[in-house]
């Protein structure tokens, strides 16, 4: 099946089989390896990407489902010269990255949350990650970076 | 403190005497040096590797917990188009993995005669893609003779139980029975004796990245990329299994998502992948599915512990007797070492001079146990620290004072021979207690009861448990442009060890962190290191890097002294500039000094050091040896709220105080402790692998409950610095200790809240409801 969608801002066109997941398409066809398969059934969140701004488990979504939509992956973040996105910077500075396996998924989940709710409370941050993180040892620290990220966006959080 | 809330974490509290600290880089919470790769998705893990012509491998596993393999027919699979290699026992040399060495070795890369648990590796396939590999597995015909199986140690030790390893007399894989001091007399002399039984469960490491390997056999040599804590052990084992010289096996580090002990020796995939690659003459990738990760990789050993403690009227611990029965699962892996370490902890935690130990490791037809953060200590510590509270309560002692009375101090030598040098045990206990003692215990609800609990731990920083010793090598190279490269054999499995090693080198050489790069380990190119386990890299690897850096520094200082006409004693290096302390005008960039050192052999100065710790090799006979160069202490204070109607336990706050010697990077220390707390809380309250007839029932993230962000309490990490004399800049290890006392602290808090002692973990809501319900309901 031929599908058209926007991938990290670029219009792309690709022929996909009906059973191929979005994660497989991203990793195998486009060689975007940031999204990881931690479980393959939507429980760990390591494969999180944005589809039309919403965080999705790309291992559960069929690739055909993104036809006509916008897909954003960790590789789409940051500036043209490789500058880090403020969210990426915040994760680093606050020690919210350990092994880094699920970090791309974490950052994309955070990005989706902030799009919807630029000034989340700590409770909202924790709830938003409920299904998107599993064994990450540093996860309690992950609520920290989101507060400053609101500051990076030019306004002060409460 | 009048008010607190749940959720989030506090900034770590570091209390130290600022006056004595004169470090510029050590002690600073710098972001991890390989963080940019990680936040951009550029960090490559095993499953991200793609090589030209690479095949995908799958493993055929035994569906039976105990079965003789009569024959294996691979003809159909081999003839399937796209299949490039099929291997069975006939493709191996019939050699066991070395593992802990004969006579403890008990496992083959592929099943030889009998499958011993559900999931045992029977055959493997490499094909051009995953679906063909899966189809090929279905085409392999295996004839099994199903045998009676045993699942619990108490069944397995019976006379008529089927013997799992037929070359052994029984299912007892190891037994350790020994005494220290004179326990019988000490028990007689004790004013009080307490006897209790504690039970701990099987838990999974639940590593988010499934285990995987890429192997590429070419021109008589094999190159391996694998998620491992122990590249040198993997090299040795693969060479052994394939019958090759070790030097022809090259293991290369790749980004790896945690390991927590599960990957601290060879696993199952490395040699299988290498065998397939040798047969197919193509690169092969083998990555486990999540289901395989749960059902077939190693677990934490479950323990049944009987503990008897003799106490004097004044509250001194006089004697301790510990009987442990440990379910080993089907194979040894590190079981014997875990069991051994448990006995040392039993003979070392708190001051007890008279000890009696009887510990058995028993084979069953289940997936096997191995190292898991704490290495047999969390189980024993749960028993010791739960009982400590009960003793204090029954004798009317203050729980903290009772612990402080029996706590270690510098200079103490435990019955197991552990020589205590730097010791923050009392300070940790006090800080953990102070962190929770004034929190409000009134929940505002009649059914929600609050309580606080305290527990402590002792742990190694490196260990001489294996004949290989306990060493790390490092080479530090300073270039003429002032940049520094650290060559280390220590793989960073996500702990941040690369960063702390860079900090050590930068501090020692007087250059900024930005000037220092660190290599990825590669058995062909980096110095040898025994592995990233036993909380050892900061201490052992750090010492190697520090000493190598100092050797490079000495050459630079000497040369700069001659060039500047200054006594080298007067020289220092800061921000990459060598200068005279007495006259700052006399200075030169470090790179210029390097060029002067070595004009004939290039612009490099190198220091190389192989650091082996001054610890003593374990003595399995006597059980007495100072197996670690130093010991880390920790104590956790927990506040919990128990809903007596539903049995739900909410951990509201944990204060974790840890003696790390010196925090080289407080942010990394904090990360290590927080991660360990998450696993420790799960161990106490939610995590449990459930089996029926040897089959795992809950091998997925929905049914096996690890904690997520939403479940975490308010946590505070309090760093205690004791400046260890042997540690690099005073540092000790902190990889494991954060998990060890957590379950006991929570169990103690639950008792404080409800008055009921739970002696089995996990403490589930149904256990609480049942214990608190009146009998007639």
Structure description:
The complex is a heterodimer of chains A (158) and B (777). Chain A folds into 2 domains: 2-75, Beta-grasp domain (Ubiquitin-like (UB roll), Roll); 86-152, Orthogonal Bundle (DNA polymerase, domain 1). In chain A, 53% of the residues are buried. Chain A has helices at residues 22-29, 86-93, 103-116, 122-128, 146-152, and strands at 2-7, 10-15, 48-51, 54-57, 70-72. In chain A, helix 2 (86-93) crosses helix 5 (146-152). Chain A is globular. The longest helix of chain A is centred in the last third of the chain and has 14 residues, at 103-116. Chain A has 158 residues and is α+β, with helices and mostly antiparallel strands. In chain A, strand 1 and strand 2 form a beta hairpin. By secondary structure, chain B is an alpha+beta fold. A 7-stranded mixed sheet of chain B has the order 4-6-2-14-11-12-13, with helices on both faces. In chain B, strands 1-31-28-27-19 form a 5-stranded mixed sheet. In chain B, strands 8-18-17-16-9 form a 5-stranded mixed sheet, with helices on both faces. Chain B folds into 3 domains: 46-147 and 211-287, Alpha-Beta Complex (Aldehyde Oxidoreductase, domain 3); 299-464 and 618-772, Aldehyde oxidase/xanthine dehydrogenase, molybdopterin binding domain (Aldehyde Oxidoreductase, domain 4); 471-612, Aldehyde Oxidoreductase, domain 4. Mean pLDDT of chain B is 95; it is low at 1-19. Chain B is globular. Chain B contains 18 helices and 31 strands. The chains are: A alpha+beta (158), B alpha+beta (777). The interface between A and B is large, with 55 and 57 residues.
Summarize the structure.
The complex is a heterodimer of chains A (158) and B (777). By secondary structure, chain A is an alpha+beta fold.
SSE order and pairing:
The complex is a heterodimer of chains A (158) and B (777).
Chain A: E1 2-7, E2 10-15, H1 22-29, E3 48-51, E4 54-57, E5 70-72, H2 86-93, H3 103-116, H4 122-128, H5 146-152
Parallel strand pairs in A: 1-5
Antiparallel strand pairs in A: 1-2, 3-4, 3-5
Chain B: E1 13-15, H1 35-39, E2 55-61, E3 67-73, H2 75-79, E4 83-87, E5 114-115, E6 121-127, H3 130-139, E7 141-146, H4 153-156, E8 172-180, H5 183-189, E9 192-199, E10 203-204, E11 212-218, E12 221-226, H6 231-242, E13 249-252, H7 269-280, E14 284-287, H8 290-296, E15 299-300, E16 303-311, E17 317-329, H9 335-346, E18 354-363, H10 377-395, H11 399-405, H12 425-437, E19 448-460, E20 471-479, E21 484-488, H13 497-509, E22 516-518, H14 537-564, E23 571-574, E24 577-580, E25 587-589, H15 590-597, E26 604-612, E27 631-643, E28 649-659, H16 666-685, E29 691-692, E30 695-696, E31 714-720, H17 742-754, H18 765-772
Parallel strand pairs in B: 1-31, 2-14, 12-13, 17-18, 21-22, 28-31
Antiparallel strand pairs in B: 2-6, 3-5, 3-7, 4-6, 8-18, 9-16, 10-15, 11-12, 11-14, 16-17, 19-27, 20-21, 20-26, 23-24, 24-25, 27-28, 29-30
């Amino acid at each position: 099946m031929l599908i058209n969608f926007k991938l990290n801002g670029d219009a792309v066109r690709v022929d996909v089989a009906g059973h191929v997941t979005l994660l497989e398409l991203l990793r195998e066809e486009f060689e975007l390896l940031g999204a990881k398969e931690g479980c393959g059934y939507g429980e760990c969140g390591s494969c999180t990407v944005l589809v039309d701004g919403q965080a999705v488990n790309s291992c559960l979504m069929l690739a055909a489902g993104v036809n006509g939509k916008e897909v954003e992956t960790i590789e789409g973040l940051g500036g043209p010269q490789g500058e880090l996105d403020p969210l990426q910077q915040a994760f680093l500075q606050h020690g919210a990255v350990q092994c880094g396996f699920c970090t791309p998924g974490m950052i994309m989940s955070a990005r989706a949350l902030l799009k919807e709710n630029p000034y989340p409370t700590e409770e909202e941050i924790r709830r938003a990650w409920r299904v998107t993180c599993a064994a990450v040892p540093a996860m309690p620290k992950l609520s920290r970076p989101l507060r400053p990220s609101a500051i990076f966006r030019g306004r002060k959080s409460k | 403190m009048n008010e607190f809330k749940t959720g989030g974490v506090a900034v770590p509290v570091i209390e130290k005497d600022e006056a004595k600290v004169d470090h510029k880089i050590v002690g600073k919470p710098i972001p991890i040096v390989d963080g940019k790769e990680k936040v951009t998705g550029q960090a490559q893990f095993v499953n991200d590797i793609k090589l030209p012509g690479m095949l995908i491998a799958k493993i055929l596993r035994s569906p039976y917990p105990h079965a003789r393999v009569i024959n294996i027919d691979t003809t159909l699979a081999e003839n399937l188009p796209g299949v490039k290699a099929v291997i069975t026992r006939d493709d191996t040399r019939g050699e066991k993995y070395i593992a802990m060495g004969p006579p403890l070795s008990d496992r083959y890369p592929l099943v030889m005669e009998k499958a011993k648990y559900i999931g045992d590796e029977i055959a493997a396939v490499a094909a051009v893609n995953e679906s063909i590999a899966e189809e090929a597995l279905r085409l392999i015909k295996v004839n099994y003779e199903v045998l009676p199986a045993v699942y619990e140690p108490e069944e397995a030790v019976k006379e008529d139980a089927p013997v799992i390893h037929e070359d052994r007399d029984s299912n007892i894989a190891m037994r350790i029975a020994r005494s220290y001091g004179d326990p019988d007399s000490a028990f007689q002399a004790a004013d009080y004796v307490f006897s209790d039984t504690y039970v701990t469960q099987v838990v999974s490491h639940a590593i988010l990245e499934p285990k995987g390997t890429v192997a590429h056999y070419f021109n008589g040599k094999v190159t391996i990329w694998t998620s491992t804590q122990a590249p040198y052990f993997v090299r040795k084992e693969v060479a052994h299994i394939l019958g090759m010289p070790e030097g022809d096996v090259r293991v290369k580090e790749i980004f790896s998502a945690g390991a927590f002990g599960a990957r601290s020796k060879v696993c199952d995939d490395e040699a299988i992948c290498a065998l397939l690659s040798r047969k197919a003459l193509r690169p092969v990738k083998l990555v486990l599915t999540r289901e395989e990760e749960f059902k077939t990789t190693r677990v934490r050993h479950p323990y049944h512990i009987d503990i008897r403690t003799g106490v004097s009227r004044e509250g001194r611990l006089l004697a301790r007797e510990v009987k442990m029965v440990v379910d080993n699962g089907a194979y040894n892996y590190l079981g014997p070492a875990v069991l051994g370490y448990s006995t040392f902890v039993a003979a070392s935690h708190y001051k007890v001079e008279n000890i009696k130990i009887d510990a058995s490791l028993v084979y069953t037809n289940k997936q096997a146990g191995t190292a898991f953060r704490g290495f047999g200590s969390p189980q024993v510590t749960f028993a010791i620290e739960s009982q400590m509270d009960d003793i204090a309560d029954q004798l009317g002692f203050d729980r903290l004072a009772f612990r402080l009375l029996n706590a270690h101090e510098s200079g103490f030598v435990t019955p197991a021979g552990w020589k205590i040098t730097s010791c923050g045990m009392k300070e940790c206990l006090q800080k953990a207690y102070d962190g929770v003692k004034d929190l409000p215990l009134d929940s505002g609800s009649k059914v929600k009861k609050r309580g606080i609990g305290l527990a402590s731990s002792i742990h190694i920083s490196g260990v001489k448990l294996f004949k290989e010793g306990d060493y790390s090598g490092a080479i530090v190279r300073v270039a003429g442009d002032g940049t520094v490269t650290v060559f280390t054999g220590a793989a960073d499995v996500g702990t941040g060890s690369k960063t702390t090693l860079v900090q050590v080198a930068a501090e020692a050489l007087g250059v900024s962190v930005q000037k220092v790069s660190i290599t990825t380990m590669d058995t062909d190119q980096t110095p040898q290191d025994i592995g990233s386990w036993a909380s050892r890299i900061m201490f052992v690897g750090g010492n190697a890097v520090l000493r190598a850096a100092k050797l490079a520094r000495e050459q630079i200082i000497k040369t700069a002294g001659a060039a500047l006409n200054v006594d080298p004693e007067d020289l220092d290096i800061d921000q990459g500039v060598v200068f005279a302390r007495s006259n700052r005008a006399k200075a030169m960039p470090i790179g210029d000094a390097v060029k002067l050192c070595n004009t004939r052999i290039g612009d490099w100065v190198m220091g190389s050091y192989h650091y082996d710790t001054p610890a003593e090799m374990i003595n399995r006979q006597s059980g007495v040896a100072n197996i670690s160069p130093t010991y880390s202490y920790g104590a956790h204070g927990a506040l919990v709220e128990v809903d007596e109607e539903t049995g739900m336990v909410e951990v509201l706050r944990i204060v974790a105080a840890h003696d790390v010697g010196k925090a080289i990077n407080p942010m990394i220390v904090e990360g290590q402790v927080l991660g360990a707390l998450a696993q420790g809380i799960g161990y106490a309250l939610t995590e449990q692998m459930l089996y029926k007839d040897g089959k795992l029932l809950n091998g997925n993230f929905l049914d096996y409950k690890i904690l997520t962000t939403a479940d975490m309490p308010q946590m505070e990490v309090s760093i205690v610095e004791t400046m260890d004399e042997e540690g690099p800049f005073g540092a000790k290890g902190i990889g494991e200790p954060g998990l060890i006392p957590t379950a006991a602290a929570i169990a103690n808090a639950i008792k404080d809240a409800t008055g009921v002692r739970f002696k089995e973990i996990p403490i589930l809501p149904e256990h609480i409801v049942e214990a608190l319900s009146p009998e007639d309901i």
